[in-house]
Amino acid sequence: MYDDFTPIIHHLDGRTIHVWAVADVHLGARECDERGFERFLSKLGEDDYIILCGDLISNGVKDSLTNVYEEVIPPSAQIEKAVELLKPVADRILGAVGGNHEARSRKAVDLDPMYAIMLMLGKGELYRTNFAMLRVILAKGNTKQRYAIMLIHGKTENKKRQFAYSIEGVDAIVSGHTHNGIVEKPARLVFTSRNNVLVKPLVSLTATSWLTYGGYAAAALYKPAATSCPQCLELEYVNSNDIEGRLRVIW
Fold first, then answer.
1. Residue 120 has what pLDDT?
2. 37 vs 31: CA distance, rounded Å
3. Phi, psi (deg, nearest 5) at residue 70
4. Using CA atoms, how far apart are residues 19 and 92, in angstroms rounded to an integer?
5. How far apart, in whole angstroms, are the C-alpha atoms of residue 99 and residue 118?
6. How many CA within 13 A on the CB side of residue 178?
């Protein structure tokens, strides 16, 4: 398994691409919109890629808050189901991190289900346990656009905002965990080595979940949130080294 501090680098053809944020699918949970997730994956095109931000499976275990008796697929079969669904689009995956649901098994028996899934897909080198630094280079000839994306699973939104202040050099931070689709666009003043003062934008994206409302969310009085409608990052390619490509959020 690669260390969190080992970046993931992708060299892709010079064209504008869409990177879809996928988190909190919770395969195996009664509320999981498995059909919706399968339809989404089946519609990915040549210019579509995905990043996996944890809690791909529900992974209810004995000591978790999840009621294991309400799971419709046991954890071992959840791993198999995730591989089955992702196998046709394995080459579309740019990176993956684990979530708190996968961490249950890491803590209990030193088994990482998310890493197992990525290994079974033949993409183990794209997995990081806690966070992943992803570099995407869109190149045609000598013309290149470079984007940097940080993947985390996340905690509360307030913690994520505080954490964002400690990160430099990324264009976007993508997370999940709260099940609330949120897009924020803070910016920073950057004093460059060429003595220019620039306004550097940052996209902070919290992915929606793939859970219908009910279960523990309803019991805990969490508010309903948008589901099964993922956001994507559009990484623009511009055929000029003098102009930087732009990163947009589409939802």
1. 98
2. 12
3. -95, -5
4. 9
5. 14
6. 17
Burial (0-12, 13-18, 19+ Cβ within 10 Å), 165? exposed
CATH code of 8-234, in short, is: 3.60.21
Mean pLDDT by groups of 10 residues along the chain of 251 residues: 96 97 96 97 97 94 74 92 98 97 88 96 98 97 95 93 88 95 91 91 95 83 89 95 88 93
Instruction: Quote the pLDDT of residue 7.
Output: 98
pLDDT score at 70: 79
